[in-house]
Each structure stands twice: as C-alpha cells, then as structure tokens.
Design a protein that fits this description.
Layout: H1 2-29, H2 38-68, E1 78-81, H3 82-91, H4 94-100, E2 103-106, E3 115-118, H5 120-136, E4 143-151, E5 154-161, H6 194-204, E6 208-214, E7 218-226
Parallel strand pairs: 2-4
Antiparallel strand pairs: 1-3, 4-5, 5-7, 6-7
The protein binds adenosine-5'-diphosphate.
Adenosine-5'-diphosphate binds near residues 174, 190 and 195.
C-alpha cells in the first residue's frame, strides 16, 4: 500500500511541473517572447517532445497505481451495446487516423449492435489501448479491421493490423510492465504500460486478452469477456 501511495503521490507531484514546462515551451514556440532562430526552435521542439513523453509516462503510471490500489478499484457492469463502445473508441481516434491516412473498418460479419453486461469505462480503456497500438504500429495509409462476435458465451473483440508486428522471441513478454519490443523501442514513442493495464482490466472482468503476430506482417489482438446477456 505504501508503495502504491508513493507512486501515486510522486506521479501527481511530477505532473504539475511538467505541465508548466509544456505550457511555457508552447508560449516560446508560438513566438510570445520574440522571434526564434531555426536552431532555438529546433531545440525547443525537442524539449516539448521529451516533455510530452514524460507526461504520457506519468499518466500511465497514475493509471497503474489507480488500478492497483484495489480498495478504490471497482467493476461496475451494466447492460451495454458493446458495438457502440467500440465505435466510440474509433471515433475518438479520428484526428490521428486522418493525419496518418489510416482507416479502421469493421469486418462485414460484425453485428450492428450487441448487448452485453460490461463496465463501459473499463471496456473503453481496454479497447482504446489495443486500437491506439494498432494505429501506432501500422504504416501510414494502412487499413485496420475490427470485429466482434459471440462464441461459447463469450463476446470476442478482435483488432487486425498490418503493421510492424512483434518479434517472435519477445512475444512472451508483451503484457509485462514497461515491456517495449526491440523492433520499435527506438522509433515509436510509448511507455510499455498500456497492455499491462488492459490485461489487468480484462482479467478483473473474468476475461482474456491474447494476440497472434508476425514481425513485418502485422498483429491481431483478441479480447474475450463473458457474455451475460440481458433482455434486449
Ligand atoms: P507501448 O506504450 O509501448 O505501446 P504497450 O503496453 O501498449 O506499450 O505495448 C507493449 C509493446 O507491445 C509495445 O511496445 C510493442 O512492442 C508491442 N505491441 C503492442 N501492440 C502492438 C501492435 N499492434 N503491433 C506491434 N507491436 C505491438
């Protein structure tokens, strides 16, 4: 408990000064303190990028400490249309999808609506982590496909990308805290916490998360949750 409290407090304390750095770097970049030389602008942009990375890490560490301090952690399930939750996650990615010219389409067998008993916010976070990864590790112009189907009283979500894939020899570590594969660690930003958080949240709902991946060809991530159907 002491450790979780410490991480949570340290993260909160770090967030404030980092937000200050972000704010003042932005002001300088916008020329609010005078015109910048090309070199000054370049250095400031590097400061901003490093700062953003730290903010992302702090946010993820806060999420981990939040979910790991079990007293406050509660699953609140209700009957929800899970297709709609999936679509919302995708809609919230529109900006980055447009910038990178990536499209996300549903499989033609994907139902238009499916009711299941889930914790909406937690499912959103799980799908967000998996979809953000599919986008991040795809190439510009790629297509991502998602699907939802029911099998053996489970609702199964899948996200297929045609991106960089995960090296075979590291596949056993993908859900470990801070794991980042060798093929992306120096080229793509990230904290290595997203899938750890996703797995934690899936398992708290008695579900499973797994993947198949081929380096250089792409990955498919699957999430299954028990389908407790209600009246529709
Ligand atoms: P990160 O912040 O690094 O994306 P995650 O915990 O979300 O952290 O993922 C852990 C690692 O798993 C990533 O660093 C990457 O090496 C690999 N990975 C996850 N999703 C994908 C994907 N769709 N395609 C290729 N590699 C992936």
């Amino acid at each position: 408990k002491l450790r979780a409290d410490f991480v949570s407090m340290a993260s909160h304390q770090l967030r404030t000064p980092l937000t200050g750095v972000k704010w003042f770097a932005e002001l300088l970049l916008r020329g609010k303190a005078g015109k910048l030389s090309i070199k000054q602008k370049d250095y400031l942009e590097q400061i901003s990028i490093s700062n953003e990375k730290m903010i992302e890490l702090i946010e993820d560490m806060l999420s981990v400490s939040r979910i790991e301090s079990s007293e406050r952690f509660k699953i609140e399930s209700k009957l929800e249309n899970v297709v709609e939750i999936f679509r919302q996650v995708i809609k919230d990615q529109t900006a980055i999808l447009n910038i990178r010219n990536i499209s996300i389409e549903n499989d033609r067998n994907c139902p238009k609506s499916l009711l299941a008993n889930v914790d909406k916010n937690k499912l959103y976070l799980i799908l967000q982590n998996v979809i953000e990864n599919a986008v991040k590790y795809s190439k510009n112009g790629d297509k991502i496909i998602f699907n939802i189907h029911v099998a053996d009283d489970q609702v199964i979500f899948s996200v297929i990308d045609h991106g960089v894939g995960i090296p075979k020899y590291q596949q056993g570590k993908v859900f470990d805290r801070f794991f980042r594969a060798d093929n992306i660690s120096s080229t793509h930003p990230g904290t290595g916490l997203g899938l750890y958080i996703a797995k934690f949240l899936v398992e708290k709902q008695n579900g499973k998360i797994w993947f198949v991946s081929t380096e250089g060809k792409g990955s498919t991530f699957y999430i299954s949750l028990p389908l407790v159907k209600g009246k529709s």
